[in-house]
């Protein structure tokens, strides 16, 4: 007996594991370990080993097998329906496409600020209580920015937030008119979503080679059209 035709080490998943997955995908019914081993002309223990890995990766799943006669029914497996969850991702390409589209709009900065504000309000929705004080609001936002990878801290007077890392640095350099206003809107949206008495009225991108500066102000003093500072 020879392995199922068309299966090569370059099948989905690569090597023997890819062959097991390819047989499962090609079969209209769930298959047992013995059936898979017979089709691939390998030992059942080999199939069992690769099946466990495929199930763990979300590429295959166990299926209830009807009981026929005494004893436990054999375990049967099928490929996980839908797209392969273990396939490659290319979120950078998606980000490039979306930022380029924003940048092509007549007023990309205003559009990005609004998008960031909506994002920030969604993040703030997990905290239902309004911020009691400006200090509390700023401290909470700093923790949120830290979770997002901005490496933030505040000055002693809490008039500025220093952002020492940009999680979208490549895009911020190539599409600063979109990414920096998006970050401004994000911070504004978080504070608006918590009804905070403070806002970010200006973002100064790359105020120094190693940081951007978010300038804080009482919420009532924010300009009608929020602005980012100079771009790189």
TrEMBL record:
Region annotation Disordered: where it falls in the sequence: 62-83
InterPro entries, per database record: WH-like_DNA-bd_sf, WH_DNA-bd_sf
Cross-referenced Pfam families: HTH_20 (PF12840)
SUPFAM superfamilies: Winged helix' DNA-binding domain (SSF46785)
Protein name per the record: Transcriptional regulator
